[in-house]
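Q: Entry one of two.
A:
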Amino acid sequence: MTTRKPLLDFGFGTRIGQIRLDHLRYSSENNGKKRRGETVASSAKNKRNQSPERCAAEGILIGGGGETEGIVEVRTMIPERIKVVVLTACMMCLCNADRVVMSVAVVPLAEKLVWSSSFLGVVQSSFLWGYIFSSVIGGALVDRYGGKRVLAWGVALWSLATLLTPWAAAHSTLALLCVRAFFGLAEGVAMPSMTTLLSRWFPTDKRASAVGISMAGFHMGNVVGLLLTPVMLSSIGISGPFILFASLGLLWVSTWSTGVTNNPQDSPFITRSELRLIQAGKPVHPPTNAAKPNPSLRLLLSKMPTWAIILANVTNNWGYFVLLSWMPVYFQTVFNVNLKQAAWFSALPWATMAVSGYFAGSASDFLIRTGHSVTSVRKIMQSIGFMGPGLSLLCLNYAKSPSCAAVFMTIALSLSSFSQAGFLLNMQDIAPQYAGFLHGISNCAGTMAAIVSTIGTGYFVQWLGSFQAFLTVTAFLYFATTVFWNLFATGERVF
């Protein structure tokens, strides 16, 4: 038997991927015969009554054939928790790519259908009309049934809505608004499912890195959507990008449904060492199908740490959706660049945000491992995540070229990703058993803010003829929320 040292504690461990039962039967039938190695005989005897799945989980590969009787080999495979986070990152990438397709496609649609800037904001915000209703309900469902089933249904339904979007746009504006609202309704389960699943699959001091990887996929969805959509619009037409991303979503569902469990202890392929690593340093949660009532809304809202999370979510969504929905339009109207150029300028900030988000998560985990309190780490990360974008948006008002504007937007979005290690993880800190429900409540308020900011930007631009006023309002909202967060946020358990 050969053993190999794990490469990284987070990334790799020793595992086995294949069991050959023919040799086990051969060894059992010829138990009285002479064997060449006592070690091989002992291994075969010990594994004779175990199932193939458990042998795989324990990391043993029995090989043999011909004259060679039994060679035990250990192979390096990817741990189950890494598979979970990679699949989650792919889901988040599709989640955002499906949103961004409309942000780009709406430009030729507006020209074709002669939409005003104010009505363009209404179309852009229609996704949020459904999103706001599914946030609370989706969070409660995730707490009760786990993220696997809820997320699978969510991705399947929003992929269907994505597929129907070109038909709806060709049929009528009302049909388009209804389909986009249904799309948002399905996507509302993505964030609470992601945070709840990762909290169960990763120990506390590695959770921020896991969320960073998943959110990196989320931000890369912007890049993929912004770069592919203009190319496919010009070569295939309106339906091209919608059909592509809808098909990828349905493919993801088939993989997810057979390869993931809600809790690590339910996985038939996880090793004992990996399960011990996951459970170390974090409380053991009850089974996901346990009937546990959510705390009353009145109780949740009676605590200031809850309001700190709600206000942080409001501010984050306000700024995020302004940039997500209006960035291509901003570059096209302010600097008179074409749609493909606007997509490239818009994609760069999201690509750097994916990298900085993982860095923020790693830095957060490092600070916790080196003895800093969870409360202080959450406050540091959230302060960077709001003060940085606020200052950058003020500077954006003075940008004189698209390159300069792209730099300021890149800085703003890169630093805003530090919020992932702030309020987004803080829900698990203060209410680990009810994080999905709390996420739904805060996300509901954040979605309302996103609707106001998305529509409000359109009215401000139509009224004043520029983006400057709304960027200034957004910057000062970042500053005010930073003060509130540092006064009332905590990393200790409250509920």
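Q: Entry two of two.
A:
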Amino acid sequence: MKSFRTLGDTAGGFLMSAPPRSVLTAILWLGARTHPTVSMALMLVFLAAWIRGARDG
């Protein structure tokens, strides 16, 4: 378990706080029904918000 904590801290801490399941479900649902470019843009926006939220506290 210590290795996971070290890895999470090294990656900026955002890996230690998982997003809500509903958010992941919505992304998968939209990703399956849209153009691949839209899916990639959605994932990048979500990842940026997740990292920014972990940095802010």
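A: Comment on entry two: The longest helix spans residues 36-56. Helices lie at 2-10, 21-33, 36-56.
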